[in-house]
Amino acid sequence: MGAPSVVVIGAGQGGAETAAALRSRGFSGRITLVGAEDALPYQRPPLSKGYLTGSTPADELDLRPRSFYEAQDIELITGTPVTELDPGGQRVTLARGGGRGVRLRYDHLVLATGARPRVLPLPGASLAGVHTLRDLRDALALRAELRPGAHLLVVGAGFVGLELASTARLLGLEVTVVEAGARVMERSASAALAEHLTAEHRARGTRILTRREVLALHGDGTGRVRVAELDGGERVAADVVVMGVGVLPRTELAADAGLPVGDGVLVDATLRTADRSVYAIGDCARFPSPHAGRPLRLESVQNASDQARSVAGAICGDAPGPYAAVPWFWTEQCGLRVQLAGITAGHDRTVVSGDVAGRRFSVFCFAGDRLLGTESVNRPADHMITRRLLAEGGEALPGPAEVARPDFDLKAYQRARQPQ
Ligand code: FAD
User: Fold this and answer.
1) Which whole number is the average pLDDT over 369-390?
2) Ligand 1 pocket check: which of 259, 301, 305 to mutate, most ligand atoms within 8 Å of Cβ?
3) 408 and 339 fall within a common domain
């Protein structure tokens, strides 16, 4: 019997990292990385940030140069969606060859298909100038329309929407953000952080409307969007609209193959689906998180990359056990570097520590006395130390009374705990 073969579906963050991690662990079998996009695997985070302003040029987006895949003997097939998965026959079908699918056999399969943006079914949603932002093509189309003086309407105040608002202000656009929830980043950040970021955006001239909904988009007779109609009858100028209302995991291949899905491809603690030869990672996977104490789907570079390395380990037979990496995330808005460590959903109190006026502070999020995580603004040391302490477990973490002391310093706290 020859060396086993691996097929990775999705040449994004998680897929590319899986292929690279397999080789760095000494996997000697065939690796095929199949991607629907016509591009080398690239980083998405700059698409709402530096790529739009020009500070991150297109050639810096690639995760690795083409020569890397050649040198590592990773067969990279781009511009080619996988159309079918047959777990029984351990085969996938590629959309290629004049409509007749090409088939590939695998011993191990990794689903790293990511997610697609959710689109609100608004009247006018198909007008020119209405965008979503997930991939390079979206970013290219959007970039061409972000002209100084134009009015940008961002629907949804999640991370991508707020990053975009911040970037567009830098580019000289008039920006309105409309959020149906009670505040910005309701799903993903504490009220304390949300309040601070809202004030930062408003200070830069962005209009943020919460508890408001866009009911319709109206064009100007040429088929181009010009105005958004909100609940209550208000009309907002909108030469460009971006829907930043979340994503839907791409689960259709798994679902059609009979694998269990439900807001993500369902996997166990080792990131395996119901079929032992098939793994799922990254934005498309729902996994049991020891940090949340429940199944979770995360959308972050950290999650896709760490899960990729974990699956590569499992395929090579040297996995240390269940996937348990501490989740973390970063965002850049209004000139601030915001870093989140841990799963803070479900916190019932927050303690803010540091220099808020000086824009260097952390929000510590607790459930009772237990620290769930921190949200750090321009305080990378708090972020890094929290990640370390969360990885060490319960004993290591400071409680709310400790953090609330005026002289509290996480670095000093950690130093004091280290054995002399
Ligand atoms: P992806 O990187 O999306 O890759 C999935 C790939 O699979 C895609 O290329 C897709 O075309 C392909 N695919 C899908 N179906 C098929 C098929 N049937 N056949 C073949 N290929 C297929 N995260 C952070 O941590 N920090 C940030 O600041 C940040 N900013 C972001 C900004 C933007 C604008 C976006 C869109 C995302 C951002 N993220 C950020 C999230 C992060 O980029 C994602 O969580 C990460 O890319 C997920 O990796 P993935 O491999 O799961 O999916």
Assistant:
1) 97
2) 301
3) yes
CB 221 within 8 A of CB 126: no
Q: pLDDT-based confidence at 318, cuts 50/70/90? A: confident
Helices 13-24 & 301-316 angle (0-180, nearest 10)? 40
Q: Are strands 240-243 and 130-131 parallel, antiparallel or unpaired?
A: parallel
- 123 and 232, same domain (yes or no): yes
pLDDT tens sequence across 390-404: 998 867 899 999 999
State the distance from the centre of ligand 1 to the C-alpha of 342, rounded, in angstroms.
Answer: 20
Per-residue pLDDT tens for 43-101? 999 999 999 999 999 999 999 999 999 999 999 999 999 999 999 999 999 997 555 67
pLDDT in tens, 126-157: 999 999 999 999 999 999 999 999 999 999 99
pTM over 0.90: yes
d(CA 313, CA 309): 6
Residues 311 and 389 in one domain: no
> 216 alpha carbon to ligand 1 midpoint, in Å?
29
Q: Ligand 1 pocket: which residues have CB below 6 Å?
A: 9-15, 34-37, 44-45, 47-48, 81-82, 112-114, 133-134, 160, 250, 253, 282-284, 299-302, 304, 329-331
d(CA 237, CA 227): 5
For ligand 1, atom 26, the nearest C-alpha belongs to 330
CATH of the domain at 363: 3.30.390.30
Specify the DSSP element, H or E, that contains 340. strand 336-342
Ligand 1 mutation target, pool 132, 300, 328, most atoms within 8 A of CB: 300
